[in-house]
């Protein structure tokens, strides 16, 4: 299920381009268009959920439905890849949710690292290399 007006659902459907760093049947990770640092990534479920806490736990999820544990496994993959890609142990993650009404988790390296946050193609490739 997607929301026709949701910008993240439009990215999932391919209506809006994005620099993807990871994707599977249930989740998508792509670079933030207004990055806090090089490699700033949004991790989202493909299915539209308003809030992260609306995503069911594994025991509550219906067959074929994503669950919150799987979301955090993707966040972990991205964070570990960012550590290697940007040579830093300092990776931040934030769950805020007011800027886009689709469940998402920010994952981004220390804003003090060197590099161009707007070099999307290069930053995405660096992360993909380690996933």
Automatic annotation (TrEMBL):
> Which superkingdom is the protein from?
Bacteria
Q: Name one Pfam family in it.
A: HIT
GO biological process terms held by the UniProt record: nucleotide metabolic process
Q: Name one GO molecular function term.
A: catalytic activity
Q: Which InterPro entries match?
A: Histidine_triad_HIT, HIT-like, HIT-like_sf
Query: What is annotated as the active site?
Result: 104 (tele-amp-histidine intermediate)
Q: What is this protein called?
A: HIT domain-containing protein
Q: Which organism is it from?
A: Candidatus Zambryskibacteria bacterium RIFCSPLOWO2_02_FULL_39_14
């Amino acid at each position: 299920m997607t929301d026709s007006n949701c910008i993240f659902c439009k990215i999932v459907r391919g209506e809006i381009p994005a620099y993807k760093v990871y994707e599977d049947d249930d989740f998508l990770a792509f670079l933030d268009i207004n990055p806090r640092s090089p490699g700033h990534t949004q991790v989202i479920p493909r299915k539209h959920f308003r809030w992260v806490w609306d995503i069911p736990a594994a025991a509550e999820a219906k067959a074929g439905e994503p669950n919150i544990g799987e979301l955090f496994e993707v966040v972990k993959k991205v964070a570990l890849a960012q550590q290697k890609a940007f040579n830093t142990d300092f990776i931040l993650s934030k769950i805020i949710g007011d800027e886009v009404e689709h469940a998402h988790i920010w994952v981004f390296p220390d804003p003090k690292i060197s590099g161009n946050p707007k070099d999307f193609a290069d930053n995405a490739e660096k992360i993909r290399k380690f996933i």
